[in-house]
Amino acid sequence: MTALRNPRWQTFALLVAAIALPLIVRNGAFTNFLTDAGAFVLLALGLNIVVGFAGLLDLGYAAFFAIGSYAYAMLASPQFGIHIPFWVMLFVASAIAAIFGILLGAPTLRLRGDYLAIVTLGFGEIVPQTFLNLAQWTGGPNGIGSLDQPTFFGYRFGFNVTPYYYLMLALIVLAVFLVGNLRDSRLGRSWMAIREDELAAAHMGINTTSAKLAAFALGASFSGLAGVAYGAKLQLVSPDQFQFNVSVAILSMLVLGGMGNIPGVIVGSLVISSLDRFILPQATSFLQNSVHVNVDLTNSRLLIYGAILVLMMLFRPEGLVPSRQRAAELHAGTSDPNAVAQEQELYTEAVS
Amino acid sequence: MDVFLQQVINGLSLGGIYALIALGYTMVYGIIELINFAHGDVYTLGTFFSLAVLTLLGVSGEVHGPALIGIVVLTIAVAMLLCGLTGVIIERLAYRRLRNAPRLAPLITAIGMSFILENIMQYWRGPSPIGFPQVVPNPTFHLGPVEIGAKQLLVIVLAVVMMIVLQLFIFNTKLGKAMRATAQDRDAAQLMGININTTIALTFLIGSALAGAAGFVSGVYYGSTWFFNGFAAGLKAFTAAVLGGIGNLAGAMLGGFLIGLIESLTTQFISDQWSNVVVFSVLVLVLIFRPSGLLGESLPNKV
Amino acid sequence: MCFRFLAVVLTVVLAACSSPSTSTSTTASSAPAADASAAPAAAPAGDASGDTIKIGVDLPVSGADASIGIPTQNGAVLAIEEANKNGFAGGKFKLQAALLDDAVQGKHDPAAGAQNVKTFIADSDVLGMIGPFNSNVAKSEIPLTNDAGLVQISPSNTSDGLTVGDAAKALRSSHPDVNAYFRVCTNDSNQGGALAQFARKLKYGKAFIIDDNETYGKGLADSFEAHFTKLGGTALGHEHITANQQDFKALLTKIKSLNPDLIFFGGTTSTGGGLIRRQMGDVGLAKVGYMGGDGISDPEFLSTAGSLADGSYFSVAAPDATRLASAKTFVSAYTARFKSPIGGYSASAYSATEVLIAAIAKAIAADGGKVPTRAEVLANVAATKDFASPIGQIGFDKNGDILSPALTLQEVKAGKVVTVDVITLKS
User: Fold this and answer.
1) Contact A306, B120 (CB under 8 A)
2) What predicted TM-score, i.e. pTM, was given to this entire model?
3) Tell me: the pLDDT tens digits for C113-142?
4) Which CATH architecture has domain A2-321?
5) Angle at C413 between CA C228 and CA C220, to 5 degrees
6) Domain total in chain B
7) Chain B touching partners, 3 or more CB pairs below 8 A
């Protein structure tokens, strides 16, 4: 029983379950779903660095996803006849995404939070439109197809979804490991300090600009990873995969699960992905066929994302699976006695 | 040269709509420092309300004579009233509780409200673009080498008039004074006996009512509406508010006209497909190099 | 805490997907068949058992595309219902439509289409599929069906690069020698060519070309431009508009200064086809001709363009079924079943589904009543020749293009759509 309470064992058990899952549930559609959901877990983990850790609202995160995907599409496809191996591209594309993160972040990070949100939103609009307009390089509206499939010691991934599932799982494990270490590092602590009170953090001697820039670049690099893996799996990139609603979907995952908390982010992205792909279609077909109510819930995605954002921020801003620290902060403004108590607890924890 | 001047007219009338939306953005931001993301959708809701009124009145085509003035005034008034109330309800439901929360929190609920409104409009009138009756006749006037349509004139004049009325209201009435005081220091204003909640609600009422007016005008101007229009229009109007200097009414109008001009001139001299990229690049550049905007005062990072 | 949550989520997800594909049965009459799909989730893929054979149908049926997508889907559903009623394969098997929607947030989406096709591929009961509606969606689907050897027939994709040229080869890179994609409508160069001829016949000489920068719209506009200039017309310019654009006055003012006698639009009503026509009136271009492809041949075009719709021309990449003697029975069966008039592609979807059903039936017969493989069904579809359908004789060339496609040219007169001509092309 005690082993069950040990977080390390819990993680291990979950990992084993995740590895075994496609072997137990031998259903291609389900594995396929999990693989796509995995890409969003990666994206959410990356956005979590920016929004959850450093408290910077990035509303154009899909732009970095696009940059990662297009980098792979241009450098590993028949488009220009360049075929850089998949594993190298993982690094190259993350680096390219990170560079764009720095290019966007460097001049804008000194802006106030909500201005930053709008700059990133503008960036998120510019990037897919630019990929669309530069048709001679990007294939314009057709996008780029036939992307190279990864090979692993001579094993070609092909079109079967299972190897991509394990690839995505490996990337998530890597990401969780990296993000966890980052959170506990000196840099991670300075992010939290900035998030809580930027001015105070600066007075404590934290170089806020470079810490924020690091958050931006690292966050962007994760979406580069996700972009490469997702592009290789889907065999296609096209500009309409990276619209604003993708950025908002990822943000909703964070808000729902719990900003700043790794398990929370994973839960949030799995819930939203399954809502999108299973729960809404299933509920619709149930309502239409069994209850004979003619409602199409899949048409209500916007409403559901919107409701999640509003209700969570109003009533449970720390998310379903909160990190205790973030919960205290987010409740600080409201006169919730619970939060005050939590804050008190945190305070005593800190001084003792 | 003629084409250039003609494009200036096009840009100004397009900008007039942005300006009307931007006024609401700038008022709300000025008073509670919230980017009211749902504002663009309140504007679209304005076209939907106007359409409903026109349908009720049985108007489906051009109207002439005194009836025209009656119908226009009535439709605008109803659209403004309903949009204003929508704004007040949104503030009450989604923002008031979070007034003292970290700033990201209300911004996130604002995005959520925007999505909710879009989905409601999609339920209401379906997912396809909807035709809007051509209520206002569109004779063209010739000003030297260029021509200007009556509808274009309507947009520009309405934007300027609204801005002036608003300016007078804010600087010459007691309520306006209360709004300015609240914007400057909420706590101090409260200590002076100003009812903060009422004042903020009033700001939302006026700002959203302006979006309702913009909604009617854009319906007439374009002859169509669509549940998703508010996203792009709202974003550009926000860009306009930032460009002019957020919190500044004259700035919002100036910004609106400038964004309209940038769009039409990009179409003329570069190409249509780059107009959005250019507008949003302007947004990014302004925020980087002059975050206070053209007419705004510089805003230090608030402690 | 977090462990419990993850466990709960996984359970929910597992429970939610206990039926292998999200096949929805839209019709009350075939509702009992839907229960047959509740096969155990753990059934390994590749084991086709049971007496249900599914036909995947992937079309955009929500959002702005619903007005044209739903009548198309109805065509496919009707073909399947009729086959079941007429004792498909001697009544031994029941056909079932697995209906999936490729529209996301009100618009057809290539990624959603690819997901749907993967769902079909993973479901071993699916022996063939109808769809997609849009060419850009087809681009993301063809590599998948090519790899899986799942036959796919589109009622309406018109982009050239789906079947011929290097672009098509790239789509079939997994098995270059196999073609699993077929279509029963003409392609954009034929459509653009026919429209260009039509425009020249109407004595238009100077055209400005606009497209919506999507696969379909750009392809059609490019083809129109090429043919129009080849036939002696002048293309004054070619611009791409942006998504969700509402204001076209600046673009139209620019165009007006070039004095065109025709504006050609490659795109759909929802991407701006109606608004452009309407705003032409505001800048003094009301008298200039307006022409587009099948993307603006929907009722929404008439309502958004308003009074300006009159005098616009467009094509439908399918013959006008209400004018065809061969489609009489279909049209009356459709209106009786769905209580609404047929859509521009209802007959095409019905015919495509008939071709697929016939191929499956033939394979079952050849296998002595057993469930055929996907490869057998594919081979039978490819061998289709002179198949009599409501839209005429169907046969395919080696690229999957229909041998003698037909298209309809229409004009708006006094607010009503009038068919000007039905052309059968020789390929």
Assistant:
1) no
2) 0.82
3) 888 898 899 888 999 999 999 988 998 899
4) Orthogonal Bundle (1.10)
5) 30
6) 1
7) A, C
